[in-house]
Specification:
single chain, mainly beta, 13-stranded mixed beta sheet, 6-stranded antiparallel beta sheet
């Protein structure tokens, strides 16, 4: 089994926007939107566990943003704000935008509270999956020196929060050396490495944390590729190549994904790599020397995908 880890963190910017109402009853902004503070957002234990349940997409994770007046320092075990004032459904604001920034995958939401809804002297915020679910994240507002601060939102102002969930992809290979076979054992080097990374590439599989599909690459040139590319060789993309995910263990912050090449596939060809599709990025696995299987053999490649606080 190979291991692949990604660090995840939350970041936010807090703005206020003065609003006025015209004779037609329609609101309009007055002046420029003001940046009031920025900070990093602690992902709670609940939030770390909740990432495991996002099969195929992270669009539901942290869709609601709550703000409050409490100033108790954040802790991993927090499940609620100290004193909640208002909560906003991000889907009714801008939705979610996903993009690559170099080797970071950034998922951005902008939460806009209606005029006066979040009025008061605010000091804390956190994400939820619904208006009442336990907190996935919690943070205090902080100044430029990192010290706790407050933001006063007036009754004629909107509160606007830009929230970024950032996945930092490690490009360090995870290498496993294993010996298999009967009679004369063969030593294999199995290497896990991200694939298709780079600014401008499309985030994979809706950013789901689980693998949704797998491909294998065969031939004399089949091998693991660069982090910005995919494996080399002849690619076989087929839904009959099964992938499975083991049940998640709360508090473990990892999922074990297995790709199986069954008896009826890839016989008498040299297999040098596989590509797991899913996660916040694709992951490729190289096998050296290449494996040539027969019709009475099955190949199973297990990849442990883990996430940690960044």
């Amino acid at each position: 089994m190979n291991r692949f880890n990604i660090a995840v963190r939350g970041e936010f910017d807090v703005y206020t926007q003065k609003m006025a109402r015209g004779a037609n009853g329609i609101e309009y902004p007055v002046g420029e939107k003001r940046l009031r503070c920025s900070g990093k957002n602690l992902i709670t234990n609940t939030g770390m566990d909740a990432l495991a349940s996002q099969a195929g997409s992270l669009t539901g994770w942290g869709r609601f943003l709550a703000v409050g007046t409490g100033n108790t320092p954040p802790a991993n075990t927090d499940t609620a704000l100290v004193a909640q004032v208002a909560v906003n459904d991000g889907a009714s604001s801008t939705g979610q935008n996903n993009s690559w920034d170099g080797l970071d995958m950034v998922s951005t939401r902008i939460f806009t509270f209606a005029t006066g809804v979040a009025a008061g002297t605010l000091a804390e915020l956190g994400l939820r999956n619904s208006s009442s679910d336990p907190l996935l994240t919690r943070a205090l507002f902080t100044d430029s020196e990192g010290a706790p601060t407050t933001v006063t939102v007036l009754s004629d102002e909107q509160l606007v929060v830009m929230y970024r969930l950032v996945w930092t992809i490690s490009t360090v290979d995870s290498v496993l050396v294993t010996t298999t076979g009967t009679g004369t054992p063969v030593e294999y080097t199995v290497t896990a490495r991200p694939a298709s990374l780079g600014e401008g590439s499309v985030p994979a599989m809706g950013l789901g944390i689980k693998a949704g599909n797998a491909k294998y690459y065969h031939g004399v040139s089949s091998a693991i590729g660069a982090v910005t590319g995919v494996p080399t060789g002849t690619m076989v993309n087929t839904n009959t190549m099964a992938t499975s995910v083991a049940s998640y263990i709360p508090g473990s912050y990892y999922l074990e994904n297995t790709a199986t090449i069954p008896l009826t596939m890839a016989n008498d060809v040299a297999i040098g790599a596989l590509l797991f599709e899913g996660f916040p990025c694709f992951v490729q696995v190289g096998i050296s020397p290449r494996i040539t299987k027969t019709a009475d053999e099955t190949i199973r490649i297990k990849l442990r995908f883990s996430w940690s606080r960044g």
